[in-house]
Amino acid sequence: MGSSESGAILRAERERGVLRILVDADACPVKQDIYKVAERYQLKVLLVAAVSMKHPRNDWLTMVAVGQGFDEADDWIVDNCEWGDIVVTTDIPLAARCLEKEAWVLSPKGKIFDEESMGSTLGTRELMTSLRDMGRLTPGPAPFTVRDHSRFLERLDRVIQQVKKAMRRKGIPEPGKKESAGGEEKGTTE
Q1: CA–CA distance from 91 to each of 56, 60, 178 (Å)?
Q2: Is the pLDDT of residue 73 over 70?
Q3: What is the spatial distance between Cα 13 and Cα 15, in angstroms, rounded to a whole number?
Q4: Fewer C-beta within 10 Å: the chain N or C terminus?
Q5: Strand 185-187 to strand 177-179: parallel, antiparallel, or no bridges (unpaired)?
Q6: CA 155, 50, 77, 125 torsion: positive or negative?
Q7: What is the spatial distance between Cα 121 and Cα 14, in angstroms, rounded to a whole number?
Q8: What pLDDT is stored for residue 121 in this prediction?
Q9: Tens digit of each residue's pLDDT (9 = 90 or more) over 82-126
Q10: Sheet bearing 104-106, strands edge to edge
Q11: What is the CATH number of domain 3-170?
C-alpha cells in the first residue's frame, strides 16, 4: 500500500475512533503477540517496514512497505502517528520522536517510554554509542526471553486500557460502541 493511500485510510480510521498500533516491524520479535491482542480488542495494526513481509491477511492489519532508504520506516511512522496511537519499537530515537507526537510508545520487551524517562534513555544510548565508537566493547541487547513476551503482553494491555480511558475522556467513541441518548456507551448488536 502506498504512503498517500495509507495516510487517507489512517485519517478516516482516526475519525471513527479506531485504536491503532503502529509497529516498527523490520526486527520486531512480538508481531504474533500483537496480532493476538489486536484481534481480541478489535484494533488496527500497521506493520511498517522497508519491504513487505509475510503477515496474516485480515481487515485489521495493513502492511506498509516504505522502501529501503535510511530511516524511511521511522519517518513514515512519525509522519502518521498521532495522539491515541500505540507505537511498538526498539528504536530509541524513533520512540522519542513518537512521544513528541503524543503517541504511546512501548518496546517489544515491555518498556513503556514516556517523557520522564526519555532523556536518560537517550543519554544512555549516546554514551554506549560513544564507547563503541572509541573501540570499547559494550554488551549488545540481552536475548529475548519468555519473560519478555509476558511483560510485553501485560504492558501492552495496560497501555491499551490507558489509551481507551483517555479517548473516553476526550469524547472519542470506541469502535463497536455508540452513545445512547443518556450519554452512556452501549454495545452495538451488529
Answers
A1: 24, 24, 37
A2: yes
A3: 5
A4: C
A5: antiparallel
A6: positive
A7: 30
A8: 56
A9: 999 999 999 888 999 999 999 999 999 999 998 767 565 555 556
A10: 61-65, 44-49, 20-24, 86-88, 104-106, 112-113
A11: 3.40.50
